[in-house]
Fold this protein.
Amino acid sequence: MSTPTTTDATKPAAATPAAPPRVRRPRPQVMSVTPLAAERVKALIEGRGKPTAGIRIGVRSKGCSGLSYTLEFADKQEPLDEVIETGGVKLWIDAKASLFLIGTEMDYEEEKLKSGFVFKNPNEKGRCGCGESFHV
């Protein structure tokens, strides 16, 4: 009988140290909210009269230019919503709207004849004449 021999191919390889996990940089927020807008959102939530978790911001096909911003009360977070917490309020960005809202600033303006939320979106290529809709 012959004795088994070992070759280099059958020797176990020396364990190489595993590379440390990559440190991920924090993702920037999809959009920013001014303190005045955060205060107004807080007032709207408090004045609703029933428990509300936050406000959901989205974009819908509507208006002369094609897209329009939407705001609605949200009772819970949807699975793919982006969360923005600022000024003591939670804003959820609808997953379908994220690409349209990157870099947007949400503000609140009060003038003599109108008041409302204003979205300053660097991705907008144009707005309709009435200012209710936009396109990218």
User: Anything to note?
Assistant: The CA atoms of residues 83 and 132 lie 25 Å apart. The two ends are 81 Å apart (CA to CA). Residues 35-46 form the longest helix (12 residues).
